[in-house]
Amino acid sequence: MNKTIVTLILAIATMTFCNAQKIEMEKVFGGYKYTQDGNLMTMKGLVKTMESDQQAFDLIKKAQSNNTLASIIGFAGGGLIGWPIGTAIGGGDANWTLAGIGAGLVAIGIPIQSSVNKKTKQAVELYNSSLNSTSFYEFKPEFKVIANGNGIGLAMNF
Fold this sequence. Notes:
Elements: H1 2-17, E1 23-28, E2 31-36, E3 39-40, H2 43-49, H3 54-89, H4 96-134, E4 142-148, E5 151-157
Antiparallel strand pairs: 1-2, 2-3, 4-5
Helix pairs in contact: 2-3, 3-4
Protein name: Glycine zipper family protein
Organism: Croceitalea vernalis
């Protein structure tokens, strides 16, 4: 009887403390910083973590592809802005048309990156909400006292 009670207590304690880790968001300049269990997460890490939740996974994959596009556009725009500035600093004749094109590319990349931040935030919120619905908070066991020819016992249904 004592072994049964100890096993039951250990099972409930284990279910209480063993749940998936939430992804935490912190607002920083230009977006959010994502951490899980104190470790900073990259976009690749977020995608890998969210594979178990299909809706969150679909959102984070869209965000990842848009992030790649925004990075390429932003890098090209920054280079086109920096080249004429470097030429001017070096004393040469700068081509300011390139800087204008670069500024245009950066202007295009900003809303794309904003969309990435929004989709990533939605995916993390969706993922975290799915963790809450499957965590121990909904574990509501039903206990019954049963008696038969062997004696009295406690039954747990969940």
